[in-house]
Hints:
- This protein is an alpha+beta fold.
- 25% of the residues lie in helices and 25% in strands.
- Bound molecules: guanosine-5'-triphosphate, magnesium ion and zinc ion.
- Guanosine-5'-triphosphate (GTP) binds next to α1, α3 and α8.
Amino acid sequence: MILARVTCPHCWHVFQAHETLWVAAHPSLRGDPRLGDDAHTRFLPSRFTPGGGALDELGAECTNLACPACHLVIPRLCFEHAPWFVSIVGAPGSGKSYYLASAVQMLRRHMPDWFQVSFTDTQADFNQLVVGYEEQLFVNYNAHKPAALNQLVQKTQVQSPEHHSSVIVAGQSTLRPRPMLFSVRPQQSSDRPQPSDQSSRVMCLYDNAGESFLSDEVAAASPVTQHLAKAKLLLFLFDPTLHAKFHNLLSSQNIPIASDMPLDAAARRQHLILTEMANRTRRHSGMAAGAKTDKILVVVVTKKDLWGPLLMRDHAGGPVVMDMKAATALGRQSRVLRLDKIEAHSQRLRQILLDSAREIVDAAEGFASTVLYIGVSSLGVQPRQDPASKKWVVAPQDIKPDWVEVPILYGLNKTVPNLITAGRAQSAKL
Ligand SMILES: Nc1nc2c(ncn2[C@@H]2O[C@H](COP(=O)(O)OP(=O)(O)OP(=O)(O)O)[C@@H](O)[C@H]2O)c(=O)[nH]1
Ligand SMILES: [Mg+2]
Ligand SMILES: [Zn+2]
């Protein structure tokens, strides 16, 4: 089935299927007004093969589709399944890239097993960046060898071609963040004898550099962060180890902060980044200043391996799913997401933040009507200091991400019908 309206994951332009451009396949058809002289020409086709593929001017059969506004290639799945955008926002060094890698890795592992939902790359070349991060962290050939943290995943650069595509608009080169696109589809199970495509989504994630949210670094109108308006789920990554008062709280309780990250000016302004995110979301979605969004906002408190001792044991994490009574036709047990556990954890963490980083809670709750606080660790293990280099290191084989999948599973449960089932321990009703 083809969607009536398609959303471009590069520039968020919404268009109808018949407006779609095709990418010429003949090697001599080069040059495009948006993408430059080397790019294959984009065109509106008039000749097709019996199989439905377009023929370019020189008779070559084309396979790639492109957006009528920015001309960048859009995977076919985006024409069939509705998009589900997630925006990941946070200060430089707050752990966004690590989080992206570990969350994607955990969703790949757990969604099929727990919820009979497949989670796969839509098109390999789109996800190279995150797949590269995942390889470093989870399939590293030197998994036993401790590696410096800033080498496993490197800092995201504001203008790097790995993270952005460049498009010419009105004679000016403009950056578009590269989307990472995943197909999320219910599989057949006893609850879902005939899984419906209505619940399938193309999940679009972006790895922005922290600097893109500091208003003095990039103009507020920067198209790099316009995905905020489209997102159903906003993840604000707050790193408490970069927050002066929180930092002091940890020191006063003799909790060591195993980190090389400097407490610099950008880090001290984490709540301003959250406020900037709120303002940009309002502006891009035409909301009044001060209005609250109905998008789900999760304050993801990163690096729990460092500050976790502040949580009481009951609220520290642990299994986030429980078995649902009915066994599936496939002989597998279906699981449900434990909302009771997630909400209790959120309340406890909110209390800790109220005591030590109140401005974050105020900014979050002033912006969204649904706010959840989730502590995560992309490493799941404390780094240790290499005696020779004094750098903090971790052996990839020891990495066991902790609760990184929870914010996204929660967002899917709340916004996509019949995909991720959830329940509460006592009533366990779905
Ligand atoms: N202890 C611990 N440190 C982490 C964790 N995740 C990230 N870090 C550390 O934080 C540093 C920054 O993480 P990144 O994921 O690169 O941060 P970022 O938000 O992408 O930063 P920019 O790309 O500069 O915006 C890493 O080099 C690690 O040293 C974690 O789960 N636990
Ligand atoms: Mg980064
Ligand atoms: Zn586009």
